[in-house]
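so my prof wants the structure for this chain in the tokens format not the other one, which i didnt know existed until like an hour ago. anyway here's the sequence
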Amino acid sequence: MPTPHRLAAIDLGSNSFRLEIGQVEQGVFQRTEYLKETVRQGNGLDEDRNLTTQAMQRGWDCLARFGERLAGFKSHEVRAVATQTLREARNRDEFLRRGVAMLGFPIDVISGREEARLIYQGVSQALPPSDDRRLVVDIGGRSTEIVLGRGRMPSRMESCRVGSITWSNRYFADQDFSKGAFQRAEVAAKAVLDEVTNAYPRESWDVAYGSAGTVGAVADVLAAAGWPADSITPSGLDWLVEKLISVQSAERLRLPGLKDDRRALIGGGLSILRAVFELLQIDRMVLNPGGLRHGLLAELMGQAPEQSDLRSRSVARLAVKFGAESAQSQRVGRVARNFLNALVVCNPPSEALATERLQRKLNWAADLHEIGSHISHTDYHKHGAYILDNADAMGFTQSELHRLSLLVLGHRGKLRKLGADFTDTAFIFQLLSLRLAVILCHARNDPVTDGLLLSTSGNADQCISLHYAQAWGIAFPQSLHLLQEEVIAWQKTPWALQLNEGNP
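here's what i got, hopefully its the right format
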């Protein structure tokens, strides 16, 4: 019998941080531990969208406790993601640097649509196989995700900047519940949600599911009051609003099933939920126990659609959308991968699969390196990098997209203004391989690379040598000139590129 292995998923939400740990036996995940801390980072963004020192400290303290619990876990057994608050925070890098050290594992800030995709995966894992067209809604602290899909595959994903923390602070700031406050909050929520809800007409889905957060809190209160368990109806929402208005204040609110940490957020969350029900014409929403962290666990277990395939499809869509020339992209990718192979032979990575990952990501950069050409011929690398830094690409985290954007930005032009980490050897190998490939493919023909050899000594001197045969230099003087210019470009970085005639 196979030995069970453990997995852990961490969801750094705007209201709470959650850690779920379990074991996988015969393909089935069994939860062994669940930790939740109400951190309220969503309340800690100031007017300049910076996390306050207090909000960061609350997060760090929680991550330190999670990190202690995860001692002994391996990197491939843990996945941690952060959502809307850290998407917005201008000083998120400061928080993440210390947070990663406290947790002991990387933290990925994911886009709204990627969050929606993972939520759908988590919800679908908790449902039996079915051909039902599913509508999934998740109202979090600072964002609301709406997803349409069938089976395990989402087909439409949106994330809106409307959440229980934001709306409670804005429309119920004094924790006073009044009819006018609810009306204003619902009208404002509809104004935000209306931009996307037209894509989810009533005839496009069969069953509506609600995940976590506000939906769970409302369903618990309604069930405790005698309404059908695990489902929400418009009449139930109307009843709950009347209850809140009758007590007038969150401080005086005492309802069976309502947890203390939800009292201050129920007004904002309930107003958003009512707006969702009306705009999407929902007559019944079923509570689903799945959510973001369950989607993470499904991907760790390999039970969700293959992530690399999702990312490859996202890259292909971007390349087609922005008119990148496929033949040139493939040409550059082939040459770049060959150069990277040569460098990796000299400096093999510690992990067995690391080379394959580096090759795949380099190939994506080659596929996308010209996507800015539709905007500008001379500065297309800058526009391509901007597109990637601001794209919603299914399967990618924001840090992965930023790394791709740096490769696209750096594939030509000056290097010292790149703002990259030149101590990251793997990235430098990818960047140099891509730049050399672009140079050799400058005529948009398959280049002759016989007679070229790229190598590094393998020590810490940060020096890479490109050797070329004399006959090659004579046959391709323009390429040789461009390579000489490349040597000069690297002189302004901590790395050195040497161009040598003859065999090494």
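also thought this was worth mentioning. DSSP finds 18 helices and 14 strands in the chain.
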